[in-house]
Amino acid sequence: MDTKELEKLPSKDGAIDKGNAHFIVELIEYEHDSVVSKSIMKKSTGSINALSFDSGEGLNERTSPYDTYVQLIDGSAIIEVDGKASTLQTGDGILIPADKPSHIKPNGRFKLILTVIKSGYK
Asked: What digits encode the pLDDT tens for the residues 1-53?
């Protein structure tokens, strides 16, 4: 790997350099029988998190008071929103509306980016 490619990786402490391109799928690694979460950015108006799920792992049903955008960056997962299931593949995304129940079900190992937008809510 040449140094230009290395510049696109997160730093040793996992922080993302602002203003520099990076490989999104390499922000977080898989861990055996685990769900791993890494905060990319957290502000009072929302947050961006990277998550990795080993085979068989998912997130229980929950309801958020904020709109949430989920984008798969590796693998496949089943995202259920208000009772309607969608199978997402690498590169696919789905908007989960505020106050609607959602559930992330495993479909093998997968990684995703979760973006929560708080601005404009009560």
From this structure: 344 444 454 555 556 777 888 788 888 899 999 999 999 989 999 999 999 99
The sign of the CA dihedral 105, 109, 110, 111 is positive
List the CATH number of the domain containing 40: 2.60.120.10
Domain contains 12: no
For residue 91, tell me if it sits in a domain: yes
| pLDDT per residue as tens digits for the range 100-117 | 999 999 889 999 999 999
**In terms of residue numbers, what domain contains 101?**
28-117
State the CB neighbour count (10 A cutoff) for residue 67. 19
The H-assigned helical ranges of 1-122 are: 3-6
80-83 long-range CB contacts below 8 Å, 24 or more apart? 80/104, 80/105
